[in-house]
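Deviation from plan, reported transparently: adenosine-5'-diphosphate complex.
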Amino acid sequence: MSDVRPAPPTDDEVLRLAEVRKSFNLGTALETEVLHGIDLRLQRGELTALIGPSGSGKSTLLNIIGLLDTPTAGELYLLGQPTRAADDATRTHMRNQAIGFVFQFHHLISAFSVLDNVLMPLMIRQGRPGAEQVELAHSLLAEVGLARFAAQKPTQLSGGQQQRVAIARALVTRPPLLLADEPTGNLDSRTAQSVFELFHRINDQFGCAVLVVTHDPRLAADCSRTVELVDGRILSDSQIPG
Amino acid sequence: MRLADSLWTEWRIALRFLLDNRMQSLLIVFGIAVGSAVIVFITALITGLQANVIERTLGTQAHIRILPPDEVNRVLPAEPGSHDLRLENPRAQRLRSILNWQEVRDALDQDRDVLAVSPVISGPAIARRGVARASVALIGIDPQRYQRIIPLANDLIAGELRVGAGDAVIGAELAEDLGLSLGDKLRLDAGEGREAVVDIAGIFRLGVRELDERYVYLDLKQAQTLLDLPGGVTVIDTRIGELFEAEHIAARLARLTGLRAESWMATNGQLLNALASQSMTTEMIRVFVGISVAFGIASVLAVSVVQRTREIGILRAMGSPRGQILRIFLLQGGLLGLVGSACGGGVGWALVQVFNLFGPRLFVIPVDPTLVPLAMLVATVTGVLAAAAPARRAARYDPAVAIRYV
Ligand SMILES: Nc1ncnc2c1ncn2[C@@H]1O[C@H](COP(=O)(O)OP(=O)(O)O)[C@@H](O)[C@H]1O
Ligand SMILES: [Mg+2]
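Because the crystal trials were delayed, the predicted structure below was used instead.
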């Protein structure tokens, strides 16, 4: 397994999808194609909102981009590297190295403290985290406004707080690509707003590519780019200047 | 370095998962502890008991006895072409000496498997005091050599082990039957007019009624005279190092000496049979307890793997390799086995001590110092093996599916 991170592509391209298709229940009577040939590029520093009606294939697309699922056809280049033919071990390694994931139901591990949850991707990668990594985790928690909660269990936190812990966790490996699937779907609009502001700040600060699935048009409107997915096809892709 | 570092994570997650499911973990640890306590206690008890029984048995027996070959009828082979119709009476086995017993003794003295050698002459006689009579076995010994086969001196309840000219040592039951005490005179009649009067120099109690009521120890010379085998011995008793090799060693000694060699295992066949079936019963108990413990661990972990489906999905999504998930659950199995058996081993050990202090006190069970560590090792390995199926299931989860599990 080679480290995928050190040599960023000459341009700022983090991700490229070429003619990506996804069918479920392949070879059965229930076979359905959910994504019909998606082409998409994500650049470093971009904050992209992925919108679309329920069932249009947003989660499916995000899972494919996050290397949790494989496309039926087409190719996905992560940091310039093709991924479709990669085996499970390589894909797992790439996930750990290059991708931060934030899910709708935050998905913290309740057995661990908030700090350990943030450190988990690093522990998975290399075992016991070093002092400077613990330092980083603390500063990320401070960044999301939860410095005081480091020693608590996730269940002692509110939904919005837990989601912010999940964001800190996704950032601890400094991934070039941050994916979030309806991260505010469960939050009230004010909390959702603050979580989104956090995405903006992170995007400015870390310069990673951020792709956020959202239902909320107001939140999407704040993003520099909006991709609309309908029935498994990209209907519109608009860049808002400035 | 990398492996140790990555195992650190597995340890941590495994431990956290176990502590998080506190009730489940405690219950299964309790179950494993009960199982290990039973295994440790029963193993110590049976091992101790059997060692004790064998020790007692061999306390009054030679390990291997070398005897003259049985006398057989010499029959001429039938002439060719004729049929051999034979009616044969086995010969009465008269008391007779081992021919070149001094050489045999010296050869045995040199033998690597043999620790002690004692030529003995024994034969029947009638003991008489006044009008009281008892049938006895005369045992002529060389006390120094004999002492190394059967430590008779330790079992003396009166007097000393002195069997020289005119002295004899007899069993307590015989002394009682004939009303004898130290210094009293006893008439021994070996038949055909061979008689002697001896002084009682010592009285022993071996704890085996048969011996305590029949054995009369003399020195070789007195017994040889009484039994009319001047200079002869009828048996050579030996003690060996490897008790349970007795059969093989006996066979080898028989070949070496050209005489009959009878091992304690052959003479105590029934006892050994009983001990073997007892061992088998214990073995079955151990195996079945082990199996139920293994199933307990496996089922607890199987439940835990399902409960933690989503968390496993998250770990996988964050880049945890399949092998890591596998190891996390194998470690949990091993940890449960280790902790459970450590508690159970301690309890089992304590039970043995309680048994030794407050039990029937018939004998003391020594606990082999390797028993508890060995039980812990076996339980840990069992835990890891029991965890294999659930752990593999966890490692195979598709992260995209697992994450959506509710
Ligand atoms: N594992 C699956 N098996 C079969 N169909 C699926 C599976 N996952 C998603 N789908 C289908 O794919 C379509 C897109 O689903 P999804 O990507 O979850 O949409 P969205 O996230 O935009 O709401 C839906 O019709 C859904 O039923
Ligand atoms: Mg969805």
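The pocket of adenosine-5'-diphosphate (ligand 1) is lined by residues A 24-25, 34, 52, 54-60 (CB under 6 Å). We consider this an acceptable substitute for the interim report.
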